[in-house]
Automatic annotation (TrEMBL):
<keyword id="KW-0687">Ribonucleoprotein</keyword>
<dbReference type="GO" id="GO:0005840">
    <property type="term" value="C:ribosome"/>
</dbReference>
<dbReference type="InterPro" id="IPR037147">
    <property type="entry name" value="Ribosomal_bL28_sf"/>
</dbReference>
<dbReference type="InterPro" id="IPR034704">
    <property type="entry name" value="Ribosomal_bL28/bL31-like_sf"/>
</dbReference>
<protein>
    <recommendedName>
        <fullName>Large ribosomal subunit protein bL28</fullName>
    </recommendedName>
</protein>
<dbReference type="InterPro" id="IPR026569">
    <property type="entry name" value="Ribosomal_bL28"/>
</dbReference>
<keyword id="KW-0689">Ribosomal protein</keyword>
<comment type="similarity">
    <text>Belongs to the bacterial ribosomal protein bL28 family.</text>
</comment>
<dbReference type="InterPro" id="IPR001383">
    <property type="entry name" value="Ribosomal_bL28_bact-type"/>
</dbReference>
<dbReference type="Pfam" id="PF00830">
    <property type="entry name" value="Ribosomal_L28"/>
</dbReference>
Length: 98
């Protein structure tokens, strides 16, 4: 399983460990990923996603999973999140048209 947030696209970064003697060795910085269950109000179901804590805070700030998916571009979302976005958008369009 890749260490990439399904909502924000945040992945690992590469940098250096720097010792007191200024020796540099490569290291990786991994995002703080959590397995969470988020509720979709439009679909009325819960969805399990692997999300970074930063992404989770962003979702709460925007006003929920449905608002986040509608406002976020497809390039950042995982395949599972893009399918979820498509379903949410269909459901919202049907409810607006009715």
């Amino acid at each position: 399983m890749s260490r990439i947030c399904e909502l924000t696209g945040k992945g690992r970064m590469v940098g250096n460990n720097v010792s007191h003697a200024n020796n540099k060795t490569k290291r990786t910085f991994l995002p703080n990923l959590q397995n969470v269950t988020l509720m979709s109000d439009a679909l009325g179901t819960s969805v399990k996603l692997r999300v970074s804590t930063h992404g989770l805070r962003s979702v709460e700030h925007v006003g929920g999973l449905d608002n986040w998916l509608v406002k976020t571009g497809d390039d950042k979302l995982s395949l599972k999140a893009r399918r979820l976005k498509r379903d949410v958008r269909k459901k919202l369009d049907v409810s607006v048209a009715a």
